[in-house]
Design a protein that fits this description.
Elements: E1 4-10, H1 14-25, E2 30-33, H2 38-42, H3 68-75, H4 85-99, E3 103-104, E4 108-114, E5 117-122, E6 127-135, E7 157-159, E8 173-177, H5 181-192, E9 196-201, E10 208-209, H6 214-217, H7 221-225, H8 236-240, H9 243-246, H10 251-261, E11 266-267, E12 278-281, E13 285-291, E14 294-299, E15 304-307, E16 309-312, H11 328-333, E17 336-337, E18 340-341, E19 354-356, H12 362-365, H13 375-392, H14 398-403, H15 408-415
Parallel strand pairs: 1-2, 1-6, 2-3, 6-19, 7-16, 8-9, 8-16, 9-12, 10-11
Antiparallel strand pairs: 4-5, 5-6, 13-14, 14-15, 17-18
Helix pairs in contact: 1-4, 1-13
Bound molecules: flavin-adenine dinucleotide.
Flavin-adenine dinucleotide binds at residues 10-16, 33-35, 38-40, 44, 50-52, 107-108, 136-140, 182, 325, 358, 371-373.
């Protein structure tokens, strides 16, 4: 492996693998770091199914040939709908072996700007110099743990991302906090594992989507109401599915539609599985304190509830300053809106040559970027942008293009911000 390369990709989830597949195909000298589908494998519950529909659960390669259908044909493994997480992880690994064989399952410890581009330090001490960095590090560091649970040890209160095997709570009294898909599905899985589970939802009702599946699937109605990734409410979904169009909408509309599109809700197929689960709405936890092996929850109606464990499924709040591998000087050079980088063409940040994919791109490219479905758009955009720079600097590697501060490609990319 060379200690210098054109591009480093950080991350081997849907976004990192898709971006790497496209960059590999355009002949760029790319090094890719991360553990294949690690977040899906370790930080989501066993037995979970994807909420995204089949078409929106595909990773992206240039020929759109490494699909879940192709995975089934090539391996003989059948995948049901909704897609079970274990199968999705297996699909991701298969995709990686085909499209990103150059993946290095290593951790990036620090990224900093250098005079010639970037200096990427790996956890094992190797230093890689490159012209561009594509960050697809996922949402792991952004888990929200409300302050009420701050003083409790993980044995008594854990974030949903910290629990893979929910069967360990068999026979225990568990309260799940949250009203989104993760909370609802965790409650269903806990119930099915014979835990005594209660779901506590702050809002007055649980919101459901896909209550009438035919509205999403039967043509022509479904196609008029919802675009293929099925992210966001009816009609709005079409704008969300077109990130270039979404970017051109007035900022107030982008912000309002972003909130509407990622509002906590559950997919209709979960509802029957929660029939026997106690769901309390309009209730919040005021405080939580340890009492021996239990937690005493004080609720907003004044009541107290002793439980064995609190599962905090309150989601993720993206703030790239929490990526520990970004050096302080790099973070201070980033133009951020509430922790989200402002990205120009090709997902490039205000630091030339530094790109962000996945959830950090939502402020600039809309809510599709929180989902696997956005990986195809993002991977194509970033590889086009890298290839464009390369074409301009004929015969020179991309690393040199970024060395030149007045590079046309760099200033162009900033125009879109
Ligand atoms: C419970 C739950 C259910 C979800 N269900 C769906 C769903 O059904 N459909 C959907 O579209 N989305 C779903 N999502 C959202 C999903 O997380 C994102 O769509 C998807 O994971 C984004 O992919 P990614 O590549 O950005 O990040 P990730 O899949 O999180 O990948 C991050 C990668 O970065 C690597 N990495 C991180 N730090 C470093 C480092 N320092 N050095 C090297 N590598 C590093 C990791 O090893 C990993 O490979 C769900 C999220 C949750 C929490």
């Amino acid at each position: 492996m060379k200690a210098t390369c054109d591009v480093v990709v950080v991350g081997a989830g849907p976004y990192g693998l898709s971006a790497a597949a496209h960059l590999n195909a355009c002949g760029v000298n790319v090094r890719v770091f991360g553990e294949t589908m690690a977040f899906w494998d370790r930080n989501m519950p066993e037995g979970m199914c994807l909420r995204s529909p089949w078409e929106a659960s595909q990773l992206s390669d240039p020929g759109r040939s490494l699909t879940i259908d192709a995975f089934q044909s090539a391996t003989g493994v059948s995948v049901s709908r909704p897609v079970p997480i274990a199968r999705f992880v297996a699909y991701g690994r298969w995709f990686q072996s085909r499209a990103v064989p150059n993946l290095e399952q290593r951790r990036v410890a620090e990224i900093e700007k250098s005079t010639t581009g970037f200096r990427v330090v790996l956890a094992d001490g190797e230093v890689v110099r490159c012209g561009r960095v594509v960050i697809a590090g996922g949402i792991g560091p952004f888990a929200v743990r409300p302050p009420q649970f701050g003083g409790l040890p993980q044995e008594l209160a854990s974030h949903s991302s910290e629990q893979r095997d929910l069967s360990i709570f068999r026979g225990k009294r568990v309260v799940v906090i949250g009203g989104g898909q993760s909370a609802l599905e965790s409650a269903a899985l806990l119930h099915e594992s014979q835990a005594d589970v209660e779901l506590l939802v702050r809002e007055n009702t649980v919101q459901w989507t896909w209550r009438r599946p035919w509205l999403h699937t039967v043509r022509p109605v479904g196609a008029v109401l919802y675009a293929w990734p099925d992210v966001g409410p009816a009609f709005i979904s079409h704008a969300v599915a077109r990130p270039n169009l979404y970017r051109m909408l007035p900022r107030t509309l982008q912000d309002s539609w972003r909130v509407k599109s990622v509002r906590p809700n559950g997919v209709g197929w979960l509802k029957p599985r929660l029939r026997d689960v106690s769901i309390s709405t309009g209730l919040a936890v005021v405080s939580a304190s340890a009492r021996g092996n239990q937690v005493d929850l004080k609720l907003s109606d004044g009541s107290h509830e002793p439980v064995d464990h609190v599962l905090i499924a309150t989601g993720y709040l993206v703030d790239v300053r929490k990526y520990e591998f970004l050096s302080a000087s790099l973070v201070s050079a980033l133009r951020l809106i509430g922790g989200l980088p402002v990205l120009g063409r090709g997902f490039e940040s205000s630091v030339p040559g530094l790109h962000f994919l996945g959830a950090p791109a939502v402020w600039s490219y809309g809510p599709l970027m929180r989902f696997v479905a956005g990986a195809d758009f993002a991977a194509r955009a970033v590889s086009r942008s890298v290839a464009r720079v390369r074409r301009r600097i004929v015969g020179r590697p991309v690393v040199n293009a970024v060395q030149r501060p007045q590079s046309v490609a760099v200033s162009r990319s900033q125009e879109g911000q």
